[in-house]
UniProtKB/TrEMBL annotation:
It comes from Microbacterium imperiale. Its cofactor is pyridoxal 5'-phosphate. Keywords: Carbohydrate metabolism, Glycosyltransferase, Pyridoxal phosphate, Transferase. GO terms for cellular component: cytoplasm. This is Alpha-1,4 glucan phosphorylase. Its EC number is 2.4.1.1. GO terms for molecular function: glycogen phosphorylase activity; pyridoxal phosphate binding. It catalyses: [(1->4)-alpha-D-glucosyl](n) + phosphate = [(1->4)-alpha-D-glucosyl](n-1) + alpha-D-glucose 1-phosphate. Belongs to the glycogen phosphorylase family. The keyword Magnesium does not apply.
Length: 829
């Protein structure tokens, strides 16, 4: 036998990427068993569920990896413009089913596993979802990387590999308790660790100037650094052979142990440095809407963007790259303000390291970033104290000051000595001195976008009004979207089959084709089939909730669902007042229980651990639930179900079963919402305010297929300006007063009147989100819901029209809008 040739980069085998295993049932079985035997070291007969799940995940990976390597190689070789999506959060949800679907292997895998005596559903259920996000913003990032891959856009997602994602919520006596989310405990089969591609990220220290061959330059002398180790995840496009990358950074100590200290016997001190470094990517901050301004959070932000920029510049760009061409090669999309420290970091790299002059560097930077804003709440706009920023990132603070100085000069040039404007537009605000990250992003970004039409309009008119006056061409809108692969095809397979039977294939990547369903709304057989799917989804949800939490869902109830983070602006309290009103009507004898439309109310919501009012509302929902559910007078009529730990996995079960989608934020507060889109696409009707993307949903589905209530945004503003006096609304509506009195009376708290008193007095005296002002209109809209549901066939027709008319909300369309309006990158097929 000839001596084997060494396998090097020049070896013919090394030139071609690995080939995939054969896409047949036998091929899959073989690959699965190889993984089980060789990787896990166990025989099928003795394998645990975890062994089988991990071997299955490896098998799916094996099918994707050849394409992935090829796409990475091409992306490096290719000159076309790439999108770097910078996001502190990716709320991915389970991976197995998604990756099977994307690679077209679902049927093969199902049969192959069955041949091994394994039910694929038990494998699906075994996966712990990576909850690396808080809510809408993180889930949007996950939908976007799915669409980027499906549209074959050269792109990479950058983020943080939190060791603990969003906390696991449990209820004790109806109150939220947070438990750590150890999502990595079973191992994480979807990731590839790349220590060889680690980057060093530095912090603190001081800056100095030095003479660089006659040029005076600044440099940063940091005090400490950590290693950023990338973990790569495959992001397969939907059955298009494309596999993009999500690169999440994990923090490690530069020196694992301080050996000298270790040898001197102080073990704890020796590992302290390691613990300190690793803390940076330890845990996702569970804040919703109000950032806490904690140092560790700023460390996290800088950590991941510095590593990402270094990664892009050193690994993706050729060494001799002409940096003035950078804007033709890359756009960094800033998902909210969390990655905005990337702007001064890019300036530092270009000016201090690559030695470009300031103006050239700034011209490049301004073309390489774009900023998406996700809020309208002033308290949600991130600011960092100058003191903290200067301590942690002294060079970046200097750079921010210079950016601000030059920007304010431009403002002065344009508007003269308008002190009000100069003060209000300054990136640095005084008392206490702090950096307004949204302003920095707006000044630096080529484009600034809101996430729904109304939101973008309000950004321009209110939050960033002065900036809009100065540079209107920067502002644009990209209405959010959701991926139909996960939220229709995977979450609602029966509806997907029904649609495919009607329209043929292709709609999953061309969601506007759902329009063709409009005529089917007039077809009685189709309506019956559609209603059958909804009923089946309710039964499936019933099974899940019974097994998970012991809740039963009745088939014949209207399923009324409010799932989203718990926040006052989202107004879960309005929903509670509705339930309490219905309850009060019956127990007071004014309405016979038999006259109520049977309804099951489902809540899902996590509250930020430090948000006392939100946690109290959770307690109240559970308390109202236990009273209503155990009152024989309401038996079979009203039921309140609040499964703990609402997450992507549960969303995939709840949304397809829903009849009514609650989108009831105060107008002008919800930037967009994306749950609203998922419900409509799954045939739930919306009861909602004219807020966020609800406005666009209503325009598309039509007033007859949407239950609108409440003040519009201008009406909200007007009432607020006039002076909002909640007591007047309570005076004007007997039922509202009764509902509030019932809560105050202690019936929901075992007679203790103090438990929920803070909620009631907040609503009556202090409520920025004007719950009481919209109560009467909300109750009236709920009555329209009951009346509409009484004609079940007409309801189903409306539900079908909701599906047919909301194809616009595919995240594929959002990504196309980003391409056209912001990125100007091209899909590469
Ligand atoms: C959400 N923001 C918006 N922030 O509230 C929602 O209207 C929108 O649809 C969605 O973004 C996507 O655009 C949101 O989820 C957060 O979770 C932040 C996490 C970090 C701390 C501050 C809130």
């Amino acid at each position: 036998t000839p001596a084997p040739r060494p396998l090097t980069a020049t070896h013919p085998l090394a030139l071609a990427p690995v080939s995939s295993p054969p896409a047949t049932v036998d091929g899959f079985v073989r690959e699965f068993l190889v993984n089980l035997n060789l990787e896990r070291g166990v025989a099928l007969s003795s394998a645990t569920e975890t062994d089988k799940y991990l071997a299955l995940a490896s098998t799916v990976r094996d099918y994707l990896v050849a394409r992935w390597l090829e796409d990475q190689r091409r992306q490096r070789a290719d000159q076309s413009k790439a999108v770097c999506y910078l996001s502190a959060e990716y709320l991915l949800g389970r991976q197995l089913d998604n990756n099977l679907l994307a690679s077209g292997l679902t049927d093969i895998a199902t049969q192959a596993l069955a041949a091994c005596g394994i039910d694929i559903d038990s494998m699906r259920a075994h996966e712990v979802e990576p909850g690396l996000g808080n809510g809408g913003l993180g889930r949007l990032a996950a939908c976007f990387i799915d669409s980027l891959a499906t549209l074959s856009v050269p792109s990479i997602g950058y983020g943080i590999r939190y060791e603990y994602g969003i906390f696991r919520q449990v209820f004790r006596d109806g109150q939220q308790i947070e438990k750590p989310d150890a999502w990595l405990a079973l191992g994480s089969p979807w990731e590839f660790r790349h220590p060889e591609a680690a980057q060093t990220v530095s912090f603190a220290g001081h800056t100095e100037t030095y003479d660089d061959d006659g040029v005076l330059r600044s440099r940063w002398v940091p005090a400490w650094s950590v290693r950023a180790v990338p973990y790569n995840y495959m992001v397969p496009g939907y059955q298009n052979g494309r596999v993009n990358t999500l690169r999440l950074w994990s923090a490690e100590a530069t020196k694992a142990f301080d050996l000298r200290t270790f040898n001197s016997g102080d073990y704890v001190e020796a590992v302290r440095a390691q613990t300190f470094a690793e803390n940076i990517s330890k845990v996702l901050y569970p804040e919703d809407s109000t950032p806490q301004g904690k140092e560790l959070r700023l460390q996290q932000q800088y950590f991941f963007v510095a590593a990402s920029i270094a990664d892009y510049m050193s690994k993706v760009l050729p060494e001799d790259f002409d940096l003035t061409k950078l804007p033709d090669r890359v756009i960094f999309q800033l998902n909210d303000t969390h990655p905005v420290i990337a702007v001064p970091e890019m300036m530092r790299v270009l000016v201090d390291e690559r030695k470009l002059d300031w103006d050239a560097a700034w011209a490049i930077t301004q073309k390489c970033f774009a900023y998406t804003c996700h809020t309208l709440l002033p308290e949600a706009l991130e600011v960092w104290s100058v003191d903290l920023l200067g301590r942690l990132l002294p060079r970046h603070l200097e750079i921010i000051y210079r950016i601000n100085d030059e920007f304010l000069l431009a403002v002065r040039e344009r508007f003269g000595d308008d002190e009000r404007r100069l003060r209000d537009m300054s990136i640095i605000s005084e008392n206490p001195a702090s950096v307004r990250m949204a302003y920095l992003a707006t000044v630096a970004g080529a484009k600034v976008n809101g996430v729904a039409e109304l939101h973008s309009q309000l950004l321009r008119e209110k939050v960033l009004h002065d900036f809009d006056e100065m540079m209107p061409e920067k502002f644009t809108n990209v209405t959010n979207g959701v991926t139909p692969r996960r939220f229709m095809r995977l979450a609602n397979p029966e509806l997907s089959e029904l649609i495919t039977a009607a329209l043929g294939t292709g709609w999953l990547t061309d969601l506007e084709r759902l329009r063709e369903l409009e005529s089917y709304a007039e077809d009685a057989d189709f309506r019956a089939a559609f209603a059958g799917v909804k009923a089946a989804n309710k039964r499936r949800l019933n099974e899940v909730l019974l097994a998970r939490d012991g809740f039963a869902i009745a088939d014949d109830h209207l399923l009324d669902v409010m799932v989203k983070r718990l926040h006052e602006y989202k107004r879960q309290m309005l929903k509670v007042l509705h339930i309490v009103t219905l309850y009060e009507r019956v127990v007071s004898g004014r309405v016979a229980a038999s006259d109520l439309q049977p309804r099951t109310f489902i809540f899902g919501a996590k509250a930020a651990p430090g948000y006392a009012m939100a946690k109290r509302v959770i307690h109240l929902i559970n308390a109202v639930g236990s009273v209503v559910n155990s009152d024989p007078r309401l038996e079979g009529r009203l039921k309140v179900v609040f499964p703990p730990n609402y997450n992507v996995t549960l969303a995939e079960r709840v949304i397809p079963a829903a009849d009514l989608s609650e989108q009831i934020s105060l107008a002008g507060k919800e930037a967009s919402g994306t749950g609203n889109m998922k419900f409509a696409l799954n045939g739930a009707l919306t009861i909602g305010t004219d807020d966020g993307a609800n406005v666009e949903i209503r325009e598309l589905v039509g007033d007859d297929n949407f239950f609108l209530f409440g003040m519009s945004e201008p009406e909200v503003e007007e009432l607020w300006a006039r002076g909002y006096r909640p007591g007047e609304f309570a005076q004007a509506d007997d039922e509202l007063r009764r509902a509030l009195d019932l809560i105050s009376s202690g019936v929901f708290s075992g007679g203790d009147r103090s438990t929920f008193e803070p909620i009631v007095s907040n609503l009556l005296y202090d409520d920025r989100f004007m719950v009481l002002a919209d109560y009467t209109s909300y109750i009236a809209a709920q009555e329209r819901v009951d009346a509409a549901y009484a004609d079940r066939d007409a309801w189903t027709r409306s539900a079908i029209l909701n599906v047919a008319r909301t194809g616009f909300f595919s995240s594929d369309r959002s990504i196309r809008d980003y391409i056209d309006r912001i990125w100007h990158a091209q899909p590469v097929r």
